[in-house]
Design goal:
The protein is of the alpha/beta class. About 35% of the residues lie in helices and about 25% in strands.
Length: about 230
């Protein structure tokens, strides 16, 4: 593997990325609910842990307890001390578990950046997952303000020298796609009455990549990408 790149934890995807992701940048994984964004993000997180890195995972939709159950079933070890899971879902029991500090993660994209910076005072993280960013966008009142805030978020993450993976289930993510360094799309197609899953890299700054739609599956052991199998569109 290209030593200047880091693994996503999914060998077939690393092949499509010609070795993996360039570290210290911000990436977006987009796809409809159920396409496998969280699974992909967890592979990325755990590849960091396996590499001896500290990883921060902020969950904004799926409560931490559900995430732990689902991901442990797929064989991920979320108990590793290098892995920090922050539950910023609206239903998190803040009064019991945590102070309003964690609430900041979910307020908006600026507060998210601040909360991450504060988290860095305790420990440096080289990988961060924010899953998903959907709500952070919903809270923005104006698109121009959101654009500015998102750009400033990307810049602060780059200053922190950490690799960030964002997920989104929104159809339209023009602003984000324009400002991040790479975009990976997950899609489920119906081909001849059967569901077929396809993964495609639509943008990757600073590296060549495979731009075909490749087949992937979600199994008991997580996501498998077949970098040699094309998915033909219906
Ligand atoms: N063991 C498994 N075998 C096959 N598919 C699974 C398994 N576990 C979960 N899935 C599928 O994975 C998908 C959920 O993936 P997830 O990463 O949570 O998606 P997203 O975050 O995009 O909503 C669902 O479509 C679910 O049916
Ligand atoms: Mg998810």
């Amino acid at each position: 593997m290209d030593i200047s790149k880091i693994s996503t934890g999914i060998p077939g995807l690393d092949s499509m990325l010609q070795g993996g992701l360039i570290p210290g940048r911000v990436y977006l994984v987009k796809g409809a609910p159920g396409t496998g964004k969280t699974t992909l993000a967890m592979h990325f997180a755990m590849a960091g842990v396996a590499n001896g890195e500290n990883v921060l995972y902020v969950t904004l939709e799926e409560p931490a307890e559900n995430l732990k159950v689902d991901m442990t079933r797929m064989g991920f070890n979320l108990r590793d001390p290098r892995f920090t899971l922050i539950d910023a879902t609206p239903t998190a029991e803040r009064y019991v578990l945590i102070s309003d500090f964690f609430e900041e993660f979910a307020a908006n994209i600026e507060k998210m950046a601040d909360a991450i910076k504060r988290q860095f005072q305790e420990r440096r993280y080289t990988r961060i997952v924010i899953d998903p960013i959907t709500m952070l966008k919903m809270t923005a009142t104006k698109e121009t303000e959101y654009r500015k805030a998102f750009l400033s978020f990307v810049k602060s993450m780059i200053r922190l020298k950490t690799t960030v993976l964002l997920t989104s289930e929104l159809e339209r993510t023009d602003i984000e796609e324009y400002l991040v360094n790479g975009v990976i799309e997950l899609k489920v197609f119906e081909v001849g009455g059967r569901l077929s899953r396809g993964i495609r890299i639509t943008k990757l700054r600073g590296s060549g990549f495979d731009d075909a739609i490749r087949q992937y599956e979600i199994t008991d052991h997580g996501m498998v990408v077949y970098h040699d199998r094309m998915v033909s569109l219906p």
